[in-house]
Amino acid sequence: MKNQEIPYKIYLDEQEMPKEWYNVRADMKQKPAPLLNPATLKPMTAEELRPVFCDELIQQELDDTTAYIPIPEDIRNFYKMYRPSPLVRAYCLEQKLQTPAKIYYKFEGNNTSGSHKLNSAIAQAYYAKHQGLKGVTTETGAGQWGTALSMACAYLELDCKVYMVKVSYEQKPFRREVMRTYGASVTPSPSNTTKVGQKILEQHPGTTGSLGCAISEAVEVATSNEGYRYVLGSVLNQVLLHQSIIGLESKIAMDKYGIKPDIIIGCAGGGSNLGGLISPFMGEKLRGEADYRFIAVEPASCPSFTRGKFAYDFCDTGMICPLAKMYTLGSGFIPSANHAGGLRFHGMSSILSQLYHDGFMEATAVEQTSVFEAAEQFARIEGILPAPESSHAIRVAIDEAMKCKETGEEKTILFGLTGTGYFDMVAYEKFHNGEMSDYIPTDEDLQVGFDGIPKFSGNEF
Amino acid sequence: MKNQEIPYKIYLDEQEMPKEWYNVRADMKQKPAPLLNPATLKPMTAEELRPVFCDELIQQELDDTTAYIPIPEDIRNFYKMYRPSPLVRAYCLEQKLQTPAKIYYKFEGNNTSGSHKLNSAIAQAYYAKHQGLKGVTTETGAGQWGTALSMACAYLELDCKVYMVKVSYEQKPFRREVMRTYGASVTPSPSNTTKVGQKILEQHPGTTGSLGCAISEAVEVATSNEGYRYVLGSVLNQVLLHQSIIGLESKIAMDKYGIKPDIIIGCAGGGSNLGGLISPFMGEKLRGEADYRFIAVEPASCPSFTRGKFAYDFCDTGMICPLAKMYTLGSGFIPSANHAGGLRFHGMSSILSQLYHDGFMEATAVEQTSVFEAAEQFARIEGILPAPESSHAIRVAIDEAMKCKETGEEKTILFGLTGTGYFDMVAYEKFHNGEMSDYIPTDEDLQVGFDGIPKFSGNEF
User: Is the Cβ–Cβ distance between A239 and A113 less than 8 Å?
Assistant: First the structure.
């Protein structure tokens, strides 16, 4: 198929869709550090994780040697409802920028959850169902993950309890209604339905909640109800495994047309999209078969990679989850309220943290206004209204394409367009009205979070 | 390709995409009645339409003999950004319903405007640009059309002035922000920016506006500003012509796999989606080459086909537009405020009206609660959150599939899934909270509208 004209959108046939996920850890010489039990500072065993997570998912979480893991047929059938996602050649954007660069994006927003989160939601719900569980619990902030999980659970007729950060619950009633449409129970967090919620409400009566608090409530409900487990939408190794479908499909589509990307760009919050997109390409790089430039793009207001510490830290603010070694701003870090959309997590996937630490990828931080400028430009030219998260990648893709315009280099750029911005119009409105803030934390702001990173032997930074 | 397994989604290759629109009027023995000048009661000439509409579009409006009209290359390139739309086999729905029926739907919601409206918006904007105009004006109610037109104008760098019914402007701020993202100016109607708006505001100071009023304002602005024309998103012949892309793609995809639909179902407001979907199939039926059952589905609260009169009437409440012969509830008819979403227009496309009158298609009216029941069921099973409008077709598709279950017939059903419901969550919330109304107008309610239908020789009913 080489040398033929590249269509605007490349869709794989169903038969071409991947039948296995790719586990990039298998090709990493320096493996990501294991989760630690905060009480013993020893690696978490499967047995210790069992009350919280589904059995099969624990195995995936801990397996750092198996390169390919079969995707169960039921999950593949669900994928067929909204995948393969298109690999889009941004002809219109290239023309408008007058760049010699060739720009591609893998668009994951064409499903009702509006983002790539569904790729892991269906997998996690499937293993819960397979284990004979009654339901799952989770937290959601901006709402993409909660929506995706609700959809997956509706399909499998599994109960789904979502703890939604109270401020989002109130400010994003439509997100809540989508989840209700999918039959999920949605509770504003903190709530009176859990002990930890009651305690927080006593201590901080007026609190509008946080992701950390919602995680604590969801975990409490999972561990105290027979037949329930807790599931998480990013950060974990298992999530990056499921999200490898993004990169695998991209690679098959590119190989089919003889396209080789020079630069691969993704936004990074907890790392699920970026990790999924780059996995198979990173595998080639790790095995010395090919070279690529990988760029993680994070918000300047929550700069885990570019200004964080590589250390063991809690994944949740409530400090009830295991310790993960990652680039972190400290589990007590709270990004500015002015920051729109997701990408607000204080830490980063252990896999990506290790790869970044070992020099296999770059990271850059971008400011909010410039992100929305890129978002609006992209919307007008390519016709897709991007999520604020995805727009971080758009910003850097455009910047790289403009560099090519200066140098005349015909580089091929691939970026991940993780989702749509239909539920983020409040942020767009702020941008249109010139009310958007470009807050960047000072070193002193960051110190508060760093002070909270657990101190123990081996955790010096 | 016959007999091979049908995939979940059939995507045409770019080379397979239609290069011509199909004009069903060419195959109609009984042509739709022409637009009349309300002053003379004679057919509108191109010259009379010129101050309001673009030249090329007037030609398309009046041409009832040319069967195939080439799609300009620029429009085809724009179509490639979001088309071909998938023809989906509803395997999951079939399984859940346990029906022997085979259900397909053509999904038009996978673009940022969220509906099929973009198919005609880009065509109308293109001809305006081609004519060297500065911009276009339009009205929008629910907002799908305004959004689509904004996107098309942003792409072509054409000015776009949208008059949005005030109640929608206030209740749907996100729709407004999407249009602003695409650079459109959005004015709540009635406004002080037009004479007709000022007059209405004087007479009814507290009014929340109507589609009829917004049309009047948009037409006034188009005709009183150098280099502007007015464009409309439904009802007109030209719109059905552009929307034939839906049916043409469906037919090519079905032919490719040897699928022949027995029943074709679409929701009907002004008729743009239904007309577009059925056009090529209707052409076969009109030429005696094949037979299909066509079902138009309308809301019981706005039942133009099933309870309207076939007569000449105004397309707008302000009575400034030409007269069209159509099934109408009277241009003064106002659907219940409890009615959600679009499909609120008092009239119906002249083409579809004539076909219905001549017995080539059926129509049925469905109540709101049953529509949302179908919407939620569909969302949970097929993973797409449908627009309320589209859900009318889902309701009847499910009903027909359940009839097949009773009779054991293996019928093939095709329906149009026109769009997504992301901006309709207020209606979903009402449904979840049991606050949805199933208002059906009484004969007395309808009489008010019927009394307003113009009386003249040849317009008896």
Answer: no
Which residues in chain B are closer than 8 Å to A423, comparing Cβ atoms?
422
pLDDT in tens, A12-44: 999 999 999 999 999 999 999 999 999 999 999
Q: Which of B105, B422, B423 to mutate to test the interface with A (most CBs of A within 10 A)?
A: B422
Whether A183 sits inside 8 A of B380 (CB atoms) is yes
Residue A56's CB: how many other CB atoms inside 10 A? 17
User: For residues B380 and B93, is the Cβ–Cβ distance under 8 A?
Assistant: no
CB A427 within 8 A of CB A406: no
Q: Which of A183, A385, A429 sits opposite B112 (nearest CB)?
A: A385
Instruction: Indicate if the pLDDT at residue A194 is higher than 50.
Output: yes
pLDDT tens per residue across span A213-250: 898 899 999 999 999 999 999 999 999 999 999 999 99
A81–B383 C-beta distance less than 8 A: yes
Q: CA-to-CA distance for B456 and B297, rounded, in angstroms?
A: 30
Contact criterion met (CB < 8 Å) for B80 and A8: yes
> Two tokens at B330?
């009277």
Q: Quote the CA–CA distance of A220 and A231 in Å, as a whole number.
A: 12
Name the phi and psi angles at A208, rounded to 5.
Answer: -95, 10
Measured in angstroms, the CA of B119 and the nearest CA of chain A are apart by 13
Instruction: Write down the ipTM of this complex.
Output: 0.92
Question: Beta strand pairing status for A293-299 and A263-267?
Answer: parallel
**Nearest Cβ partner for B8 among A80, A92, A384:** A80
Residues 6+ apart with CB under 8 A from B306: B298, B363, B364, B365
CB contact under 8 A, B178 and A425: yes
Per-residue pLDDT band at B4 (split at 50, 70, 90): low
Query: Shortest CB distance from B14 goes to which of A8, A422, A425?
Result: A8
